[in-house]
Specification:
Helix content is 30%, strand content 20%. It has 273 residues and is an alpha+beta fold. Strands 1-6-5-4-7-9-8 form a seven-stranded antiparallel beta sheet. Strands 2-3 form a two-stranded antiparallel ribbon. 34% of the residues are buried. It binds flavin mononucleotide.
């Protein structure tokens, strides 16, 4: 890419962040054109369904909200231990749990806010160390707070390494969350403005995952630098109507790894004055 092309790409990126309503005042999205809305959830495709426990009062939640907010940080050093099914269930609940419906079936109300309550994301999991679950690929069913097993796989480390673009510390995660965008679920309402809103929406999901992990002594780190193609293939996504665009390894951590965590930022010192 030459300098001119780079500037054009940057300009396009900036333009995408603006609403640009003035472009065409007559523009109507499918919702406002009276087109029936798409499903709020994906139906399960597997017969291997796992009920998730919800007795969250059994979890040893640490501190008050301010303590949790202050303690949150990205973790990249994991000790490769099992987390419990209840802990996993709690993380899924805190990030995408359905608390109710708005209207008959117009929208879901969840534990995170979302533009127009479209909740255009699906949660996929690559599980390594979760008590009671075989390692492999899973999909969260928020409509019933269950998991479906898409495929058991003994060794998922190569998959994690490739999809996380060789950030191999992630291979020690107990579970890696992969978030997809089901594009038309939000495009139906927001049309050409959808993609700007969706990137804002996912921040709430990610932050809730960070905070929920912190509150039960687990570590996590958002990963934006992912290899989409391999992730889409593993979860059976076409890469256009639905595609993975963010991931979050979650793992067990220990206090004595604090220095190792800081070592990830060693490069920062080159920039010190
Ligand atoms: C959208 C997003 C993408 C990120 N992608 C990566 C990544 O690919 N690799 C990584 O090591 N950290 C990634 N991070 C973590 C940031 O580096 C981290 O949040 C930042 O350095 C601040 O540190 P803290 O989270 O401990 O406060 C990402 C964070 C966000 C919010």
């Amino acid at each position: 890419m030459d300098k001119k092309e780079i500037m054009e790409r940057i300009q396009k990126g900036r333009a995408f962040m603006h609403m640009q309503e003035e472009d065409d005042p007559d523009y109507k999205t499918d919702q406002y054109s009276g087109i029936k809305q798409p499903p709020l959830f994906k139906d399960p495709v597997s017969e291997q369904i796992v009920d998730l426990p919800t007795d969250f009062e059994q979890l040893n939640l640490t501190g008050n909200l301010l303590d949790v907010i202050n303690a949150r940080s990205s973790h990249r050093v994991f000790t490769e231990e099992n987390i419990s099914l209840l802990q996993l269930s709690y993380l899924l609940w805190c990030t995408q749990g359905v608390k109710g419906l708005r209207g008959k079936r117009y929208a879901t109300l969840r534990t995170v806010p979302c533009g127009g309550a479209r909740h255009e994301f699906e949660t996929y999991l690559c599980i390594q160390y979760v008590e009671g679950l075989k390692s492999g690929y899973y999909h969260y069913l928020p409509q019933t707070h269950q998991l479906e097993c898409l495929k058991e796989e003994d060794n998922v480390k190569d998959f994690i390494s490739v999809t996380e673009q060789k950030q191999d510390w992630a291979c020690k995660a107990s579970v890696v969350f992969y978030y997809s965008m089901v594009a038309y679920r939000a495009e139906w309402r927001y049309g050409i403005f959808t993609h700007r809103v969706a990137l804002i929406d996912v921040g709430y999901v990610s932050e809730n995952l960070y905070l929920a992990c912190t509150s039960i002594g687990l570590g996590s780190c958002a990963i934006g630098a992912i290899s989409e193609k391999e992730a889409n293939e593993a979860f059976g996504l076409d890469g256009n109507e639905e595609f993975i665009f963010l991931s979050h390894p979650v793992g067990t951590i220990q206090e004595s790894d604090k220095q190792k965590e800081l070592d990830f930022y060693a490069f920062v010192h080159d920039y010190d004055e």
